[in-house]
């Protein structure tokens, strides 16, 4: 999805298909032509414009996400934090071998149930409640309610997409939301 970090400003929809097996290319091009899956020139310009700041945004968002994950890890209102930048995370060793930074997505399980998690999300003031990621603004979502009744996602899990706001402001926002 080029909509997310490549676009980075939540103002464009796009995607790319990358294939290892070239025998699938003709079928995909036919699907693209028949389905009309071709971006407009303006959408291409928006994505191209945003690529210039991609490395800076990723570095900043990743550094903020690590700072926020470490804060949440110590918070009494948080049961568990999922972030590959934390040494305790089960995917930390793999992430260290594959990544320079650890990304801007942080998940946390709050102490409590779905109602508690949704109340925490509702009390945030800087985070916007939305299902997306990779924009310059920070988002929070109750993932299980988005996925529906068959979800395996814990009911107390909140997913955060960390934007470009000051990380201390985001920490203070999460802290007040976790303390009703």
What report would you give on this structure?
This protein is an alpha+beta fold. The chain has 7 helices and 5 strands; from the N terminus they run αααβαβαββαβα. The chain has a 5-stranded mixed sheet with strand order 1-2-5-4-3. α3 runs parallel beside α7 (167-178) and α5 (114-123) crosses α7 (167-178). It is globular and about 55 Å long.
Please outline the helices and strands.
Elements: H1 25-35, H2 41-51, H3 54-74, E1 78-82, H4 92-98, E2 105-110, H5 114-123, E3 128-129, E4 139-142, H6 143-147, E5 157-161, H7 167-178
Parallel strand pairs: 3-4
Antiparallel strand pairs: 1-2, 2-5, 4-5
Helix pairs in contact: 3-7, 5-7
Strand line-up of the largest beta sheet: 1-2-5-4-3
Strand content: 5-15%
Distance between the termini: 37 Å
Low-confidence stretches: none
Overview in brief:
The chain has 180 residues and is α+β, with helices and mostly antiparallel strands. It has seven helices and five strands.
């Amino acid at each position: 999805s080029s909509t997310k970090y490549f676009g980075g400003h939540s103002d464009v929809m796009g995607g790319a298909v990358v294939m290892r097996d070239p025998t699938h290319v003709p079928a995909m091009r036919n699907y693209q032509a028949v389905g009309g899956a071709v971006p407009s020139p303006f959408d291409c310009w928006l994505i191209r414009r945003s690529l210039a700041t991609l490395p800076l945004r990723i570095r900043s968002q990743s550094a903020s996400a690590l700072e926020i994950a470490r804060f949440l890890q110590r918070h009494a209102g948080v049961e568990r934090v999922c972030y590959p930048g934390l040494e305790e995370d089960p995917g930390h060793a793999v992430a260290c071998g594959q990544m320079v930074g650890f990304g801007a997505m942080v998940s946390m399980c709050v102490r409590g149930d779905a109602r508690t998690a949704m109340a925490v999300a509702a009390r945030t003031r800087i985070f916007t409640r939305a299902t997306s990621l990779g924009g310059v603004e920070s988002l929070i979502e109750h993932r299980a309610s988005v996925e529906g009744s068959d979800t395996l996602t814990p009911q107390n899990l909140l997913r955060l997409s960390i934007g470009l706001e000051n990380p201390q402001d985001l920490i203070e926002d999460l802290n007040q939301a976790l303390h009703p």
